[in-house]
Automatic annotation (TrEMBL):
It comes from the Eukaryota. SMART domains: DUF1741. This is ARMD3 protein. GO terms for cellular component: cytosol; membrane. Signal peptide: none annotated. Its main location: membrane. Keywords: Membrane, Transmembrane, Transmembrane helix. Residues 435-671 form the Armadillo-like helical domain. The keyword Transmembrane applies. It is found in: Membrane.
């Protein structure tokens, strides 16, 4: 028997048959693409159509091939097809429902391709007609809601979510997608929550549900009341919030695992040998080889949850004990099943917390740890604009966390200690840290480590000023909490002080280049005021009196940098140029640092002369510092522990608009034909009762 081949809706025998035969469904599509009503000659036309296996490629291609005028001629038939699709969603036979869902996907995508240059209203008219739009869309949303909430097929739920993602991302700028007005009016919010709260549904559909919610929240969020924003902000159901957290943690963990795998491959491969042989000149190139595609959609979902819902903050700290645990933290253990780290992306199996696989260097894990690791990878390389945006979003999320009172409480909790293995950028002058020797510390130490790591590793010509400002703001907000609550954190503060002084040194060394693009005095002022915070309030939050002594030691030891900064800002503040005012603010802010330097330097020189020592040891300098506090006079500076709270609408609207646009394009691109494949569905519904 001759083999049958299929291509583009055509059937032909591979033997002698010359004329290709069309599939029946393709012939039926062709009838729809005429100006005649296809049900005139065949009253059972629509009934039969939804029993046929959908040919997505042919249907979409046919729509795209028509010009606007030709499409308008068959508008009535397109409207009719759309309405019959919606009717078929209420059918008992699942195959009809599957075919209707897939046809709707093809229709929405195909019609949109033709209407790219026109308004959303034209798309609505083309699909359903203005006169029937409200009722049709209401019926469509109600049907999708019922299918998502029903006990039935998981495959149907998956298709419903794909259709909704198709509907939402049909335009690059989702706020111009007027079809979404009907998704606002006929909310599917509760259906999304139900998916996230159920372990089975979450395993199968959690990722799509979370991405869908993140996109819906961003529809015209600054222009009108978005019901999805309102509803997300008041969710307080623990199972739902935990479910959302688990989906996000799983996606971020998968990214971290992929990066680690590629890093290990890279270290044992050709580039590693080459680097060892020639030196570290290839580090940057080799680094590019281990980049993994970032996931802004899931990061946006995390941001919206943290920013909008205060109850979600508790989810960040939910600790999952892992095998081989030495000490169990006192934080609550979630009762909902958790997603294993390091399994295949979002749809991987959910297992009980006791079965969570071990990451050798981490005793316990939670969403915040996973996010910090993710951030440490993404923030390494900010030269690429895509990663720059990802790094910025990570810092915005950390800003929201650093402002939250409850988040700060668990960040600084001495009873919640973790080993957090952050990724560190390979640099010529430092060795790779030994992962196994990481101490168990409160989570705030990992946040501070991440900030210090960023400060140290991004002093370059293409200076990411905005990210540096956010970094310093996060440190400042954490210090404000420590000062307010008198939290004495055992942290290696010297590393932070050293990083900040080196940053000032970099700003001065590159004054001309940087001033051409940035107001470096804003950043310099923030850094100086961090030192002022330590000087003025350090006795209330530094762990020991000797820590305060070490602060003075560092200021005196590195006095040349502060002297140079003062000379630079004094020079610019006495000129009539554009930098006069910002430079003069730094001049005033340096008053106490200069007082410390001018007070202790003569004392140290005198001590050295009296004792005939050419170079004092650290202990000797510290002795001079301790014995001369009494005669030091400092000015009280106001507002050091005050900060402006984060506001998205006023400062970040343009960033989020562009970010959501990029996510929308990416989600649409990844909704490929194969993700809408029918093979599994047809196996599942192989019999029609």
């Amino acid at each position: 028997m001759a083999q049958t081949e299929k291509k583009g809706g055509l059937l032909r025998k591979s033997s002698a048959s010359k004329k290709p035969l069309k599939e029946k469904v393709v012939l039926m599509y062709d009838e729809i693409f005429t100006t005649e009503d296809p049900s005139k000659c065949n009253p059972r036309f629509w009934e039969e159509l939804f029993l046929m296996k959908v040919n997505l490629e042919y249907l979409e291609g046919k729509l795209e091939a028509l010009d606007g005028e030709e499409l308008m001629k068959i508008k009535d038939n397109i409207n009719c097809l759309f309405q019959h699709c919606i009717q078929a969603l209420g059918e008992e036979h699942p195959i009809r429902v599957v075919n209707a869902l897939q046809t709707l996907c093809a229709l929405i995508r195909g019609v949109h391709q033709k209407n790219k240059s026109t308004s959303g209203f034209d798309i609505i008219n083309m699909l359903v007609g203005f006169d029937k739009a409200e009722l049709c869309m209401k019926n469509l949303m109600e049907s999708l809601d019922s299918l998502l909430c029903a006990e039935g097929s998981e495959s149907l739920k998956s298709l419903c979510l794909k259709l909704l993602l198709c509907l939402v991302t049909v335009t690059d700028n989702i706020s111009q997608n007027t079809i979404l007005e009907y998704v606002m009016i006929n909310s599917i919010f509760e259906a999304i929550l139900q998916i996230l709260s159920s372990p089975l549904s979450r395993r199968e559909h959690g990722y799509d549900a979370v991405v869908l919610l993140a996109l819906l929240v961003n529809y015209r969020k600054y222009e009108s009341v978005n019901p999805y924003i309102v509803k997300l902000s008041i969710v307080d159901d623990e199972a739902t919030l935990n479910g959302m957290g688990l989906v996000i943690a799983q996606a971020l963990s998968e990214y971290n695992r992929q990066y680690k795998d590629k890093e290990e491959e890279h270290q044992t491969g050709f580039f590693s040998a080459l680097t060892n042989m020639v030196g570290s000149m290839f580090i940057a190139d080799a680094d590019e080889k281990i980049s993994v595609q970032t996931n802004e959609a899931i990061l946006l979902a995390l941001y919206e949850a943290v920013h909008l819902n205060r109850n979600f903050i508790t989810v960040l700290a939910q600790s999952h004990p892992e095998m081989g645990l030495m000490t169990t933290p006192t934080s609550p253990i979630p009762t909902t099943p958790v997603t294993p780290l390091g399994t295949t992306p979002p749809s991987s199996d959910v297992i009980s917390s006791a079965e969570l696989p071990l990451d050798a260097d981490v005793q316990t894990s939670n969403l915040l740890i996973t996010f910090l690791k993710y951030s440490s990878i993404v923030m390494q390389d900010t030269k690429d604009e895509h990663r720059l945006h990802s790094g910025k979003l990570c810092l915005i999320i950390l800003t929201c966390i650093a402002e939250d009172q409850y988040a700060n409480a668990f960040l600084h909790d001495d009873n919640m200690n973790f080993r957090v293995n952050l990724h560190r950028m390979p640099m010529r002058h430092r060795k790779k840290a030994a992962d196994k020797n990481l101490p168990c510390r409160p989570l705030v130490c990992a946040v501070l480590d991440l900030m210090v790591e960023f400060i140290v590793t991004h002093m370059m010509k293409e200076f990411p000023m905005d990210l540096y400002v956010r970094c310093i703001q996060i440190v400042h907000k954490l210090l404000c909490y420590q000062k307010k609550c008198r939290v004495r954190l055992h942290y290696t503060w010297r590393e932070l002080w050293s990083a900040l002084i080196n940053l000032l040194k970099f700003l001065m060394s590159n004054e001309t280049v940087l001033l051409a693009k940035h107001n470096i005095f804003t950043l310099a002022l923030m850094v100086v005021n961090l030192f002022n915070m330590f000087i003025t309030y350090g006795d209330t939050f530094l762990p020991t009196p000797s820590s305060y002594d070490e602060l003075y030691y560092e200021i005196v030891r590195m006095h040349q940098n502060f002297d140079n900064l003062y000379s630079m800002v004094l020079r610019l503040s006495t000129n009539a140029g554009q930098w006069k005012e910002p430079a003069s603010k730094v001049t005033h802010a340096l008053v106490n640092i200069r007082a410390i330097i001018n007070h202790f330097n003569p004392k140290i020189e005198s001590y050295a002369a009296v004792n005939h020592i050419s170079q004092l040891s650290e202990d000797q300098v510290l002795e001079v510092v301790r014995s001369n506090y009494d005669t030091l006079t400092l000015k009280l500076q106001d507002g050091l522990d005050q900060y402006e709270r984060y506001s998205e609408q006023h400062k970040e609207a343009a960033f989020f608009k562009e970010l959501v646009r990029s996510i929308s394009i990416n989600v649409r691109k990844n909704l490929a034909f194969n993700t809408l494949s029918q093979e599994l569905l047809l196996k599942e519904f192989s019999t029609i009762s």
